[in-house]
Amino acid sequence: MSFMPTFADAEALAEHQLRGLQWTVRHAYNNSPFYGARLEQAGVRPEDITSLDDLAKLPFTTADDLRATYPFALLSVDPHEIVRVHASTGTTGKRKVLPYTAKDINDWANMFARCYEMAGLTAEDRVQIMVGYGVWTAGVGFQLGCERFGALAIPAGPGNLDMQCDFLVDFQTTTLCCTSSMALLIAEEVRRRGLKDKIAVNKVICGSERTSDAMRQTIGRELGAEIFDIPGMTELYGPGTGLECSAHQGIHYWADYYILEMVDPVSLEPVEPGELGEMVVTTLCKQAAPLIRYRTRDLTRLILGDCPCGSPLPRHDRILGRSDDMIIFRAVNIYPGQIDAILSQAEGVASEYQIILSREGDGKDYMLIKIERAENGSPGDDAAVAAAIAGAVKSQLMVSPQVEVVDYAGLPRTERKSQRVFDRRFDD
Ligand code: ZN
Question: What does the alpha-carbon distance between residue 261 and residue 278 come to, in Å, rounded to a whole number?
Answer without folding.
Answer: 8
